[in-house]
Write a structure and sequence with these properties.
By secondary structure, the chain is of the alpha+beta class. The chain folds into two domains: 78 residues, Glutaredoxin; 146 residues, Glutathione S-transferase Yfyf (Class Pi), Chain A, domain 2 (Up-down Bundle), CATH 1.20.1050. It is built from eleven helices and four strands. The longest helix has 32 residues. It is globular, with a radius of gyration of 18 Å. The structure holds glutathione. The site of glutathione has 10 residues, from α1. Belongs to the GST superfamily. InterPro entries: Glutathione-S-Trfase_C-like, Glutathione-S-Trfase_C_sf, Glutathione_S-Trfase, Glutathione_S-Trfase_N, GST_C, Thioredoxin-like_sf. It comes from Corallincola platygyrae.
Length: 241
């Protein structure tokens, strides 16, 4: 029997779910993976909620550290970065900058785009039409993109020229602008940053784990994947009405 890996990752093919996968693939760390199936509500199963009190993905268990459990994707990235000494600058100021952009993603880009996606791709497909909410979240996401664009002028990555966990956290969200219907027109520095990370083999490999969901990026059979996605969150919409 093959030896268990130190890191056991529970995840699914979503923007938050890909963050630790991108880290592990980029760092070349081997890990065990348990895919979580939303259509079966596995993220709400009592045994899983003991690991992740929020009932969401991702979660890691570090078997080499007394089965230490980490939930919240930003905290997972920070934990892995410290454990493996990767994608986190050593200099205290640079490290603080990394944390600032990580928080900007966790508190801004992720939640705003997440709601923009939810209202358009899930709620609307289940008959809940809320144009005011959609406009609010799409506009706010675009505003955050403009902040990223201005910051990225003259920089390769969010923290100067070093690929860090701030890029790992922000990329899967911002790159899914298509799915949220947020325009990136005129944002050439943001687009150039997309291009740089699009060219990173390990990151692109990670986007296929546990399985690809190309519709987020406007590719493949978008209508079919949209139906599949709306279906897996159907019960969330019916709970609201
Ligand atoms: N703040 C959390 C958010 C996690 C989250 O919302 N995960 C979504 C997928 S991107 C999820 O598990 N959704 C399933 C559900 O809502 O039941 C994190 O960053 O880890």
């Amino acid at each position: 029997m093959s030896k268990q890996k130190d890191i056991h990752l529970y995840t699914a093919s979503t923007m938050n779910g890909w963050k630790p996968v991108i880290f592990l693939e980029e760092a070349g760390v081997e890990y065990d993976l348990t895919p979580i199936d939303f259509s079966k509500k596995e993220q709400k199963a009592p045994d899983y909620v003991k690991l992740n009190p929020n009932g969401r993905i991702p979660t890691i268990v570090d078997r080499s550290n007394d089965d230490f459990v980490v939930f919240e994707s930003g905290a997972i990235l920070w934990y892995l970065a410290e454990k493996y000494g990767k994608f986190l600058p050593k200099d205290p100021k640079e490290q603080s900058r990394t944390l600032q952009w990580l928080m900007f993603q966790m508190g801004g880009v992720g939640p705003m785009m997440g709601q923009a996606m939810y209202f358009q791709r899930i709620a609307a497909k289940q008959g809940e039409e809320h144009p005011f909410a959609i406009k609010r979240y799409v506009d706010e996401s675009r505003r955050l993109f403009e902040v990223l664009n201005t910051h990225l002028e003259g920089r390769e990555y969010l923290v100067n020229d070093e690929f860090t966990i701030a890029d790992i956290a922000t990329y899967p969200w911002a790159r899914a602008f298509y799915w949220a219907n947020v325009s990136v027109e005129g944002l050439q520095h943001l687009q150039a940053w997309f291009g740089r990370i699009d060219a990173r083999e390990a990151t692109q490999r990670a986007l296929e784990i546990p399985k690809p969901f190309w519709a987020f990026f406007g590719k493949g059979d978008v209508a079919a994947q949209e139906r599949e996605n709306a279906e897996r969150f159907k019960s969330d919409v019916s709970k609201q009405s």
